[in-house]
Every structure is written in structure tokens, then in C-alpha cells.
Amino acid sequence: MAIATASIGAWAADGSTAYNFLDVTTSTHIYGLGGVNISTVADDINITDQNPALLGPEMDNQLGLNYMYYMGESNFAGVKFASQAHEHGAWAVGIRYFGYGKMQSADADGTITGTFSAHDIAFNATYSHDITDYLRGGINIKAVYSAYEQYSALALATDLGVNYYNPDNDLSLSAVVANLGGQVKRFNESYDRLPIDVRLGWTQSFGSLPFRFSVTAWNLTKWSLPYYETGDGTSHEAPKLKESFSTNLFRHLIFAADFVPSERFHIGIGYNYKTRTDMKTYSRNFLSGFSLGAGLNTSKMGFGVALSQHHVGGLTFMFNLTANINEFIQ
Question: At the topology level of CATH, where does 2-329 sit?
Fold first, then answer.
């Protein structure tokens, strides 16, 4: 079980929670902006996993598919569908599969006994409603089934979100409480906590410039996020604990920028300082902490790609496909 969850450990707020795969986005747009972004407004159903208040009637009959190659033999995939609910509401349902490949099993003496597979499956249902012309609220309910070798578990989680969007100023402000809930069925006697988090987000463009900037604050349930500085590999000194005010502050922030020359095309780049410092070894890739994504939309279809390489041994790649079903049935 620990081996299976290790492949997504870079997303954990700390080592005391499980189910950290719930924080891995389904959206290439969001992944390109640093992996966590709750305030970017777009006509893309895949972004709604970050903030249920980003779902809206404008996504009526939109279908989204997502796939992610996530280091090692890990492969994630999912599908999501949205529909309008009267004039000021919308709902969506989806399913996502997190597969971690084959792993070796061993007995208590360390003798290899064979192989086993490990996977998580998340089902979700989302509802949003326009509170005012500028303010929207949303709720997302998730049921998560986990199967690691002969062990299985079930958990329920809820995301609550609000978004304020002023199209005249292209200003978006959001707040999300993510992963409220707990285990219904445990793997064994121990109880695994969900990665409950509070997040704040700001996204805005300025004037006629085709750029949109974002800052996302996350892991706000815990200020202290220390890490160890391991050096460049040439010293035999013990790793140094880093826990200053500035390192804690920046490990809570994700910075991103979008180049948006039109409504049909975007290129995004993000910088996640926490990811960079979590992977801080002398063999870390220079690009660790950075991510890049791009998307192209037509009247009927949307395509998106994103990638990052947080470590020399781990390239991640994501692909999105969206379809506006209304355009096909007219």
C-alpha cells in the first residue's frame, strides 16, 4: 500500500495523509499552470475538479476525457459529463481511474511471492449554482474505492467552492475547501486521513495584453512545511532542515501565467515551489517545479496537452479531449 501511494507523494501536503491522488488534476490547462489552480475561468469541463464553482450552464452537454502518464508505470484516466440545470445551475458526473502498474509481493521473510496490481477509482458528482451575476457556488461529492493487493478501502470526500468573476475586468477570485470527509472502510485497523485543504486563488489579465496571471495559495491548513536541503552531492554533511518564514510562505504559493491571444488558443506555464523543494536532491532536474501546457479549441472539440519533469527519472504527460455534444446534434 505504501509503495502504491509513493508515486504521488510529491502532491502530499505532509506525510500524515493518504488519498493524495485526489489532488492530481484532470485538466491539462491546470496542470500547465502548476498543478493546482482554482480561479482560472474557461469553457472546459476538466477544470471543474479544482473548484466545483467553475462549473456552469455554459458547459451544457460537454464531455471531457483525460489521460495522464504519471511516472514509472502509473497511468491515470477519466471521463466527465456536464449538463445545464435550469437557467442558473449545472451538474456533472465523472469517474477516474488511478493505476500504479504491477508490483512485487513478498512474505514476512522477504521472499518474493509474485506480483500484484494497485489502483484507486474515484466517482464524483458536482453541482453549481449562480448566486449573483458575478458569484457562483459549487459542491463536489467523491466516492473513492482503493484496492492494493488483497487490501481494499472506501472513502467519501466533499469539495466546497465559490468563485467571483467579473468579465469586464477579467478578474477571478476563488476559495475552496477540498477533501472534507473520511474513510468508510479501512485497509486495516489504522485510519488514513484525507488531504483536507483550504485554498485561495486569484486570476486576472490587465488591459488589452493577451496575458493572464494567477497566484494560488494552498495547504493553508498548516503553515509549517519544512523540507531538507541535501546539497549538490559533493558534501558528506547531513541534510539541513529549512523552515524559515520565506520558505514556508513560498511553499504555500503557486505562480502561473497564460498567454491567451484568442478564446480558441492558450499556452500556460506554472511554477510550484513546493514541488521543486520536495524533489530537492542533487540529481533534481533543472526544470523541477515548472510545468507547461497548451490548448486549442474549435466550435465542436477541444484539445489540450501538458507536461513536466520534476525529477530526472520522472517525466509526466497529460492529454485532454473535450466535445460539445450540442454542436454534433444540431
Answer: Porin (2.40.160)
